[in-house]
Structure formats: C-alpha cells, structure tokens
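dude i think i finally got it to work??
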Amino acid sequence: MTFRAVVFAYHQVGVRCLQVLLARGVEVALVVTHHDNPAENIWFDSVAALAAEHRLPTIMPTEANSSELSAAVRAANPDFIFSFYYRHMLSPELLALARHGAFNMHGSLLPKYRGRVPVNWAILHGETETGATLHEMTAKPDAGAIVAQTAVPILPDDTATQVFDKVTVAAEQTLWNSLPALLSGKAPRLPNILANGSYFGGRKPEDGRINWRQPAQTIYNLIRAVAPPYPGAFTEIEGKRLVIARARLAPSEPLSGANLPLGLQIVDNTLFGLCGDGRAIAIHELQHEGRLISLAEFAQLTHT
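look at this
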C-alpha cells in the first residue's frame, strides 16, 4: 500500500528527511517550503531544489495557516503530514487534514530544548549530548507524543555546525528506522513530559556579544554555539566589531604575567581572550567585516 504525504520542510534536515520518505516509497503529494531570505547566510541545501529534481508539486506560501494553504493540503488528500525544520507552527485545523497523523522532526532529545535553534542552545548550556526526536504535532510546540529518538554526542570542542551535521544524520536515521511502523500504524507513542524538559526561543546576532567578565567555559560555549556560518560571537574594540570564528580553551592555569585587562590581548605573539575567572581562550581565527585578519592587522585595527 502506498501512503500519501504532505511535507513541510526546509534546511538540511528537511532535505535529508524528504529523501528518506522518497526512498521508503512514500508518495509525496505536496511539498511546502520557504523562499530563501536574501539577508540570511544560506549554507544549507535546498528543499525546493530537491523537490524540483523529483518533480514534486511545491508551494512557498508567505503565511503558514492561510485558507489557500489549507485548500492545497486538503486537495493533496494526505494520509500523513510531516514537518522537517519548517519554520512556522501549523494550526490544529491544518494538522487534522492528515488521516493517519501529523509528525515533526525536532533537533533535540525532547522534552529538553523544545522551541527554536535547539542545537545552539544545547551547546550554550554545555550539554554533552543531544539528538533528533520524531513526535506527534499538537497545538503546542514540540509537545506531542514521542515516536522515536536518536542521540548524538557533543564533544568539548564541537561547533554548532559540527553538531548540526550529527543531528541531521540522527534525524535521517530516526525517520528511516521508525517509518515502517509509523506507516503500518504500529509506532509507539511515548510520553513527552514537558515538566522534565525546557523551552527556548530564537536567537539574534546581538546575542553573540561576549561579556569577558564571564568564566572562560561559558564564553567558549558561546563561541562554539554561534561560530560561522552562524553570525558568530563578537567583541567590540574602538567601535570595531570583531568576530571570533575559531578558538580553543587555553590551559587551565592563568597566563603568566597576567595583570592584563579582560578581553582580547596579544601575549607571546598569540591572541588570547582573557576571561573573568582568570582563564583564557586562544583565538585561532578572528574576523573583521567578514574577513579573517592577522595579528598585525588586529594590532593596527585596535590602535587606529
């Protein structure tokens, strides 16, 4: 038996999970995705391009729950609705159009890190593990019963991009492994106990501003969590915004000869960020206006 699905998808997880549905023989009757925002750094693959390659009907509505969208989904006559990193909440009325249920892929181990940008938040909070969760969609975000989860490690020096790559594979594995039972109506529904988890909203580029009075580990987590292609953790010197693109925690002992002010300092021909707990972060790549700069350029920038 062939099942029909309407797929709301965007970003890398959207691409990979759409490919899983096609590989498993699901008939994708309609793809709903987003127009790329020209103001955003688009570093991920395109759901629209993948849908075009497979000649799948595709729409890009500006409103998530318009009457036109509802009509298009109803006309597609779906057995299932799937949401894979689609950026808008879907109304209960829309979800009800799927005869056998509506399911979302979320980039955390629910109920932890419900809401926006879960990978970035997990790194910011120093987590050592995250993953992907397939769950039922409800009116409340990331609150429905859990079908399946796959965990991945967050290593001490992993950036958000590296963790996101792992989560993308985890999402693909989760969907691939659970889809046969889901299609046959035999998939589990595990409790998603929200009181045991957490919810976080979106982040803005300004949230990457470094407070050098904080401990080194906290600052390093921020650097990892928003490292390019995300907007980056930054500090300002004489009105110039400097983005720390790549760094490592320095050895635990304070820098010899310290008595230096907090923030960016050159010591023994190496650039460090001196932190509030006396520890330091070794800065390996520093950007100004989107371009990597050398130590000499840093010195010149900060003394002009």
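The chain has eight helices and 15 strands.
im so relieved honestly
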